[in-house]
Amino acid sequence: MNSKALIIALLGVTTLAGCSSEEHSDLRQFVRESDKLPGGRIPPLPEVKPYEPFAYNAYELTDPFRPRKIEPPKSTVKGGLQPDFNRAREALEAFPLENLKMVGTLQQKGQTFALVKSPDSALFRVKAGNYMGQNFGRITAISETDIKLKEIVQDSGGNWEEKEQALMLQEQGGGK
Predict the structure, then answer these.
(1) Which of 34, 71, 121, 137 could anchor a disulfide with 149, C-beta 3.0 to 4.6 Å?
(2) For the chain, which domains are there?
(3) Closest by CA position to 84, among listed 166, 152, 162, 156
């Protein structure tokens, strides 16, 4: 048992010797040197200016962030052009006119129909009087090469005006 006690005592002494070395000597030296540096002067706080209320007196001026609309005389508003918002929307009115393609025509019982392809590759048969495009476009005529329509668009003044458009036949490219 004597040898075991001796080994344990030697291990304890070795452990204590390892703990006696100064572990953070570099930090202690930095703190001592920092204490010797001259202290800096802290600048005074800036002077707080008293609150001055602002009176806003421009309620009568035109708001620059609201679009201006020149109002026509009340007598002309009643008979003005505008789209029928109560009408049931047709399938091709969900797409912009630029995304629709005329791919052909057909005739049945003396009436000419146009074949229109939508962006989702669905094929629709339309005739004069049908609507297409997002600007309330109504088909006025169909020929072998194009579909003519009248759109009702709103101008910058908020008034509705008719605009003629045409959807041309898209030639199918010759594939290899």
Answers:
(1) 137
(2) 74-168 (2.30.30.830)
(3) 152
